[in-house]
Amino acid sequence: MTPFEQLPYRPCVGVVLVNRDGLVFLGRRTDSGNEPVDSGHGWQMPQGGIDEGESPEEAALRELYEETSVRSVAPLAVAPDWFAYDLPEPLARKAWKGRYRGQMQKWVALRFTGPDSEIDVLRPGGGKHKPEFAAWRWERLDNTPGLIIPFKRAVYERVVETFAPVVAGPAR
Fold it and tell me: How far apart are CA 12 and CA 169, in angstroms?
């Protein structure tokens, strides 16, 4: 068995979806088995793996649609750096068949330009994808680190630092 510290990170994208009021989308995770969900920290922004040959921006649009059904967006910004987090080792040994120690994420900010009725987390991707969220809400970006599972908190703090000026900007 490969030592935990030598396992690679899964390439992934995270999406900061910003509405006209400067609030960001948060979804309440379902219990998928890959990452635990607890009552106090089950919220997160959309995220997912980057497919072979896909850019982070392409992955962000695909993952957003697959998790929320949202297509009405305009690009805002891409984080200049990759942000990584480790899963707790026992969980990492189960998730993704034990191939990764965590995720290395490129974060993309998008302006949501559609109506809230476009968002459908219960039948995402037009009903073609398994729901990853049981509910959703709009939230202030600076509140998100306290709502995320603790092992992802440092990444969310960096997301807040990186995108706070973008989120605070006027809607276009």
Answer: 26
